[in-house]
TrEMBL record:
Subcellular location: Cytoplasm
Species name: Coprococcus aceti
Annotated GTP binding sites: 71-78, 117-121, 171-174
Protein name as catalogued: Translation initiation factor IF-2
Function: One of the essential components for the initiation of protein synthesis. Protects formylmethionyl-tRNA from spontaneous hydrolysis and promotes its binding to the 30S ribosomal subunits. Also involved in the hydrolysis of GTP during the formation of the 70S ribosomal complex.
Coiled-coil annotated spans: 166-193
Annotated Tr-type G domain residues: 62-231
Family per similarity comment: Belongs to the TRAFAC class translation factor GTPase superfamily. Classic translation factor GTPase family. IF-2 subfamily.
Chain positions covered by the region annotation G-domain: 65-213
Length: 354
């Protein structure tokens, strides 16, 4: 060290024992000592992760559509999903208000559709945005007796910003005060023009209560999905997005994640933003234990060391060390960088300035 410092000092460089030398300089000096320096490859972990990995077309197989249900508060999003799933989630909600994104998988004549239910209350803008960003199709629910409202417009903006297809479901047509034509008229202002008016947006009048029009809505979703030719490679390490996460008293951190690529298995090591861990247990949207989850499948997983943020990207990696390194790097490089892949890298400001 003293010899090197002296040498550099004589060459006009004030350095100390902690200084760093550029690679070129270091390799020149190394040569004087008959050594060949090799540059260590510096990998920016986050950049690596953000890279959309190239997929070979031949590995791609079709995957189910992921559909998010959006719209103004109380326009009947959860009721519509209840009608589709034949469940009664609405009646169990506190104050009848959805406060989190709920994921469910529905089988329609042998074809699968993954639904994300989003809250309509104005306080949940971030959830609506996340819903739109992780899906292929948005079902815009507009109550026929109420028409276009502030969060209807917000939902349209989220869907447009995320570049996803919008199918309009005019709900509550069973009500006497329902006015389907008025809703159609109001939506033309937002460039959602029905096909029978010369536009290209699919409008489905429905009633979550009488179930009128629901079959037609499902058919339209599958038709739209067909055109999109949605595909993913199931034979690779899983990658996807965190929909919701919380700390459970008994089970520790639990996260609902949507697998977007690859297959996630129990036993896989994963990195999720600042958290990491090994998938200890996995349950599907019906609460059943599963050992693997294919693309477009939402699953709840246990085994993370901390609760990840919703919207975070998760990825399966080779081993625990890699998972830990990624989360540590993530913490040190700042989370903003990962909180988004290209599609997700937009702020609300962008959204509203459009
Ligand atoms: P948030 O999640 O809080 O935004 O509400 P939501 O859009 O999920 O609405 P929800 O399904 O909770 O329904 C709101 C109210 O509208 C409930 O009282 C439902 O019973 C009622 N409702 C929903 N769909 C229909 C329908 O088709 N017809 C009639 N008459 N009422 C409906
Ligand atoms: Mg709801």
């Amino acid at each position: 060290v003293t010899a090197l410092i002296k040498k550099l000092f004589l060459a006009g460089k004030m350095v100390n024992v902690n200084s760093e030398l550029p690679f070129d300089e270091a390799s020149e000096i190394a040569l004087e000592y008959n050594c060949i320096a090799e540059e260590e490859e510096k990998v920016d972990v986050i950049e690596e992760l953000l890279k959309e990995d190239e997929e070979d077309e031949k590995d791609m197989v079709s995957r189910p559509p992921v559909v998010c249900v959006m719209g103004h508060v109380d326009h009947g999003k959860t009721s519509l999903l209840d009608a589709i799933r034949q469940t009664k989630v609405t009646s169990g909600e506190a104050g009848g208000i959805t406060q989190a994104i709920g994921a469910s998988v529905v089988d329609v004549n042998g074809q699968t559709i993954t639904f994300l239910d989003t809250p309509g209350h104005e306080a949940f803008t971030a959830m609506r945005m996340r819903g739109a960003q992780s899906t292929d199709i948005a079902i815009l629910v507009v109550a026929a007796d109420d028409g276009v409202m502030p969060q209807t417009i917000e939902a349209i903006n989220h869907a447009k910003a995320a570049g996803i297809e919008i199918i309009v479901a005019i709900n509550k047509i069973d009500k006497e005060s329902a006015n389907i034509e008025r809703v159609k008229q109001e939506l033309t202002e937002y460039e959602l023009i029905p096909e029978d008016w010369g536009g290209s947006t699919i409008f489905c009048p429905v009633s979550a209560h009488t179930k009128e029009g629901i079959d037609n809505l499902l058919e339209m979703i599958l038709l739209t999905a067909d055109v999109l030719e949605l595909k993913a490679n199931p034979n690779r390490k899983a990658r996807g997005i965190v929909i919701e996460a919380e700390l459970d008293k008994g089970r520790g951190p639990v996260a609902t994640m949507l697998v977007q690529k690859g297959t996630l298995h129990v036993g896989d090591y994963i990195a999720v933003g600042a958290s990491h861990g090994k998938v200890r247990a996995m349950t599907n949207s019906r609460g059943e234990r599963v050992t693997e989850a294919l693309p477009s499948t939402p699953v709840q997983i246990q085994g993370l060391n901390t609760v990840p943020d919703a919207g975070e990207i998760f990825m399966a990696v080779d081993n625990e060390k890699e998972a830990r390194t990624i989360s540590e790097t993530y913490i040190s490089q700042g989370k903003e960088k990962l909180l988004a892949d290209t599609k997700q890298r937009m702020s609300l400001d962008d959204l509203y300035s459009q």
